[in-house]
Design a protein that fits this description.
Blueprint lengths: L6 E8 L2 E2 L5 E2 L4 E10 L7 E9 L4 E3 L5 E6 L2 E4 L5 E4 L8 E5 L10 E2 L2 E2 L9 E11 L5 E13 L17 E10 L11 E2 L7 E2 L9 E3 L14 E2 L7 E3 L1 H9 L3 E8 L5 E9 L2 H4 L3 H13 L1 E4 L8 E4 L27 E3 L11 E3 L18 E3 L6 E3 L10 H8 L15 E8 L6 E3 L10 E7 L4 H4 L6 E3 L1 H8 L5 E5 L17 E4 L9 E16 L6 E6 L6 E4 L6 E2 L7 E5 L17 E3 L5 E5 H7 L6 E10 L2 E12 L4 E3 L12 E4 L17 E6 L6 E8 L3 E2 L10 E6 L7 E5 L6 E6 L7 E12 L10 E2 L2 E6 L4
Parallel strand pairs: 3-15, 16-22, 25-27, 26-28, 27-29, 29-31, 31-33, 34-37, 35-43
Antiparallel strand pairs: 1-2, 1-4, 4-13, 5-10, 5-14, 6-13, 7-8, 7-13, 9-10, 11-12, 14-15, 17-20, 18-21, 19-20, 21-22, 23-24, 30-32, 35-36, 36-41, 37-38, 39-42, 40-41, 42-43, 44-46, 45-52, 46-52, 47-51, 47-54, 48-53, 49-50, 49-52
Length: about 800
């Protein structure tokens, strides 16, 4: 015979009222979803049972694991014993639940037996089962939701039928029922949300709108809302505590809701949706960092000058919000969801690369919490106190290179860690302690890092070359071992405050740091040595000229592979190019070019000669200060090392020796001619006495002072302090006359006017007499005195 098939119907109700087609529901609404399977009259009379499955779509969450069911036959209404079977369908996207009404295991006249359903019918009576599912709307965006329903059965043939084995009356009925329209969730104003300000106590105490006897949170939750595994509800009080997974979701979101279902004494249920959030001062506690990040967004871009010879790199920070981003907790637009748009950050508030920066609000040693949200950060330039006076108020101090990297390697839920995207890191103007703390050998890996500039006052060779001992090492050693393969430009500096904040400019003492990874081209140019090296001037072989004899500066270079302690000399030192400049590469007032014909390699290659006359012709500054640049290329890598040189003219006072001869002494004056009175009368002539002076490049004058000690005899008698020396200049163009008491006094000095304005050296001749006013206290013996010549305002 032909039997009619069962039918499936369903409807949603809100507060007992059916939801009409097109009527929108909202996130957090508590609905009842009723599904009815009806077996019409005249259907099969001997069923073993019916299996009914209802699958909820992602966006509807079962509010409890005990839905109710009722069966009707011949006006008899029976309630299906609970619990019904509820399973989770992991093959469907989202948090879906399948509610299954199992079939009976044996034929019986009972409608309900052992939780199974037997939809008996006869010619006049239908049978039906209605399942009521309490569901929460957990969809937050506008759209539609459709549940899937499936019914299957098992049928037993009549006894006169063969074969007498169970089979299906109908194989399956599937139907999509009742499309539900969902409106977009209405996000409350920040003032209506609940702050969770303390990261060690993630809980809140809501105030329900009415008294209740029970409360519950349902569903597995999602990244955008908190479910059963994300919160816990204490037995008393209104407090709601976040679990570890809830805390993780809270920290990843600008705000996150939790739907709480309340039940009162009459069984009435309602929901309340609480939006909780972390204030800006919680997820980014340092006020200076907040100001720095807001400034980066408000400017729209950040420029970082990563190398002296390269074009500065500009990173766009397109916030896409209206108005100025402030850092006030109540009105801020600086949110966690905005941070992935931050691609470049610097604490330099003015245009990059324009000199010493003055004041800054924050640096690496302060709290860095909050930067982990910048999942697409590519360029980071954080200058230290030697470049930027740290004027901000900070909750944390004493942070280091290691703590910065540790923070940046901590991913936020659903995002990648900033350390995965960083390409340029410039940390300049700190002390070495920010980089040399010892910790575990492991350091984070920066797979895209290409440019690294570290400038730290007091940095030493061992800080980057010492071998790892046990599980500890200076932080830079394991860092370089971990990351040197990715580097394309590395800069290390051991001086305090360079003149501009782009730190491709230093080395450690006399070492070039060699990176030994195959295929790595480290651009380690323009490294400025700390301190000043002094070169002393000397008289050249050419009259009236000065030169500097310089050792072979090519042979003093060594290479040290990073992460090791072994230094070796540059074997092909002949390939080291040498030049001198007026200025170092940190200077931005002009484009410094090499000074030509100033430094020349000696023919025997034992050293160099600096021609001082050519220096004065080529130099723009003529300040007796220059920069020696040594350039060395090996393995495709070019290294250049700058050394500050000071020229010293301390040797540029030369005098002759005085000899007043052997005298039959009486009161009078005796010329400097070495005459012996025992050989005859003094002819009265003078042996020329000369003084040669070197002068500054900026002045045509120097000052020469002369003082003399008392004359002392060889026989141990008392010194004679009554004598004097009388100098009479023989240069009519600039006569000088000095009378110098030989009594140990300060003597006299005179301004030395150079005869030849173009000369570097000037020599003057004098006639010198010994003035003897009386011979008392003087005996027949040899007398000597120490004469001191002092030169000032000279080459330094």
């Amino acid at each position: 015979m032909t039997n009619p098939l069962p039918s499936l119907t369903g409807r949603y109700t809100l507060n007992g009222t059916a939801i009409l087609a097109g009527q929108a529901v909202h996130f957090g609404d508590l609905l009842n979803y009723q599904v009815t399977l009806t077996n019409p009259a005249g259907g099969a009379s001997r069923w073993v049972g019916t299996n009914l499955a209802v699958t909820l779509p992602d966006g509807l969450t079962l509010a409890g694991n005990a839905p109710t069911a009722q069966v009707t036959f011949n006006t008899q209404l029976s309630t299906v014993p609970s619990p019904l079977t509820v399973t989770t369908d992991t093959t469907v996207s989202g948090s879906t639940a399948t509610v299954t009404i199992p079939s009976k295991t044996a034929a019986s006249n009972d409608i309900v037996r052992n939780n199974g359903i037997d939809l008996l019918t006869d010619a006049a009576n239908s049978s039906a089962i209605t399942i009521t599912l309490p569901v929460l709307v957990t969809k937050q965006t506008a759209g539609t939701l459709t549940a899937a329903v499936q019914a299957t059965d098992r049928y037993v043939h009549q006894t006169n039928e063969t074969p007498a084995v169970p089979t299906s009356y109908y194989s399956s009925i599937q139907k999509s029922l009742d499309t539900l329209t969902v409106a977009a969730a209405v996000i409350p104003a920040r003032s209506a949300m609940i702050p969770i300000p303390v990261r060690t106590n993630e809980s809140f105490i809501p105030v329900p709108s009415a008294s209740y006897t029970q409360r519950a949170v349902y569903g597995a939750g999602a990244a955008t809302w908190l479910g059963t595994g994300d919160v816990s509800l204490p037995a008393s009080g209104n407090q709601i505590n976040l679990t570890a997974t809830g805390i993780q979701k809270l920290r990843a979101a600008d705000y996150i809701p939790v739907i709480t279902v309340y039940t009162n004494t009459t069984g009435q249920q309602w929901t309340e949706v609480y939006y909780v959030y972390e204030p800006l001062s919680t997820w980014m506690p340092d006020a200076g960092l907040r100001q720095t990040v807001a400034s980066a967004f408000n400017k729209g871009s950040v420029t970082i000058n990563t190398h002296f010879f390269d074009t500065p790199q500009t990173y766009l920070n397109t916030a896409g919000v209206t108005g100025v981003i402030t850092t006030d907790d109540a009105t801020t637009q600086l949110t966690k969801s905005l941070m992935p748009k931050l691609t470049g950050l610097t604490n330099q508030l003015n245009t990059a690369g324009t000199g010493v920066l003055g004041a800054g609000a924050w640096n690496m040693t302060n709290g860095v919490t909050g930067l982990e949200y910048a999942s697409n950060l590519q360029g980071l330039a954080i200058y230290g106190p030697s470049l930027l006076q740290n004027t901000g108020t900070h909750t944390t101090t004493g942070q280091t290179f290691r703590t910065l990297l540790n923070q940046l390697q901590t991913p936020v839920l659903g995002q990648s860690a900033p350390i995965q995207s960083l390409q340029t890191v410039d940390l300049s103007g700190y002390t070495a302690t920010a980089f040399t703390g010892s910790g575990t050998a492991a350091m984070p890996s920066l797979p895209k890092l290409q440019t690294l500039n570290l400038v730290a006052n007091g940095l030493a060779d061992a800080d980057v070359t010492a071998a790892i001992t046990g599980t500890t090492a200076h932080d830079l050693v394991p860092f370089f071992q971990q990351n040197k393969a990715a580097l394309r430009q590395l800069t290390l500096a051991s001086y305090a405050a360079p003149t501009k904040p782009k730190m491709d400019q230093a080395t450690l003492q006399n070492n070039i740091q060699a990176v030994t990874t195959a295929g790595t081209a480290i651009n380690q140019q323009d490294m400025v040595m700390p301190g000043t090296t002094t070169w002393s001037l000397a008289r050249a072989d050419t009259p009236d000229q000065i030169q500097v004899n310089v050792p072979d500066v090519r042979r003093t270079l060594t290479t040290v592979p990073l992460g090791t302690a072994t230094a070796s000399a540059v074997s092909d030192y002949q390939n080291v190019a040498v030049a001198v400049y007026d200025r170092d590469p940190t200077n931005t007032t002009d484009t410094s070019t090499p000074l030509t014909n100033v430094l020349t390699l000696k023919a025997d290659q034992s050293g160099y000669v600096l021609n001082y006359t050519n220096y004065l012709k080529a130099s723009q500054l003529r300040n007796n200060q220059l920069y020696l640049k040594r350039t060395y290329t090996t393995g495709g890598t070019q290294y250049s090392l700058w050394t500050k040189i000071g020229l010293s003219g301390i040797d540029y006072l030369q005098v002759d020796t005085l000899n007043f001869g052997k005298r039959q002494l009486r009161a009078g004056q005796y010329p400097n001619n070495g005459h012996d009175d025992s050989t005859g009368p003094d002819p009265g002539t003078y042996t020329p006495f000369t003084i040669t002076v070197g002068r500054t490049s900026a002045s045509a004058q120097s000052t020469v002072g002369i003082s003399a000690s008392p004359f002392t005899g060889t026989a141990g008698t008392l010194p004679v302090s009554s004598l004097a020396l009388h100098y009479v200049s023989q240069n009519s163009a600039a006569p000088n006359t000095w009378t110098i008491p030989a009594d140990g006094s300060a003597g006299n000095s005179a301004v030395w006017a150079f005869t030849n304005a173009a000369a570097l050296l000037d020599t003057k001749s004098f006639n010198v007499d010994l003035d003897v006013p009386a011979i008392s206290g003087i005996s027949a013996q040899q007398y000597t005195a120490t004469i001191t010549y002092t030169l000032s305002n000279v080459l330094r």
